[in-house]
Amino acid sequence: FVLDGTAMAKAAGYVQDHLPSVSRVDSRREANRLAYQLYVLAEYGATADREAGGELGLAIRLFEKRHLLDQYGQATLAMVLALLESGERGRVETLLSNLVGEAITTATGTHWEEAEPDYWNMNTDIRTTGIVLWALSRLEPDSEFLPNTVRWLMAARREGYWATTQGTAWSLLALVVSITLLLCRPARKW
Q1: For a tag site, which of 13, 26, 98, 151 has the least CB within 10 Å?
Q2: Are 62 and 22 in contact, with CB atoms under 8 Å apart?
Q3: How far is it, in rounded angstroms, from Cα 73 to Cα 24?
Q4: What is the value of pTM for the model shown?
Q5: Within the chain, which residues score under 50 in pLDDT?
Q6: What is the pLDDT, as a whole number, of residue 190?
């Protein structure tokens, strides 16, 4: 459905006005949430043809504190940096390399597991895997991890759905992006 541009601008302004100072972010949950807030603003800026209002500086400072980010936060921050800093891939490559290094491959496919659950941000390992798949699909569409991650997500369903609404939403989003890539690149063999 169509939203009034003024309403979207007000919503983005609200998020922008309530961003925490990166220097005060000292917990995983705050860092992960800030990465997502920055992603929302970066995506909004890309679709609204708007200049980033300081989000790049915040993203770079958050990158410097990336040790606080869970794997899904790293994937989200990689998306932020790719949107805001399109000519510079160094930070994005660092985050993606970290994620690839943390991948767990089993007989059912490839997935990611967090050291601890992030209940404040409603995260699970299924949601993390969905978010990493979504980011890899957009940022590294030729990644060798995509087919096995799709396989793992499909195997993680129980009776046709994932355990949580967040896990379901991110898994579906990631699968749509991955399948779109497959359809747009018919020569690719999965």
Answers
A1: 26
A2: yes
A3: 17
A4: 0.90
A5: 188, 190
A6: 47
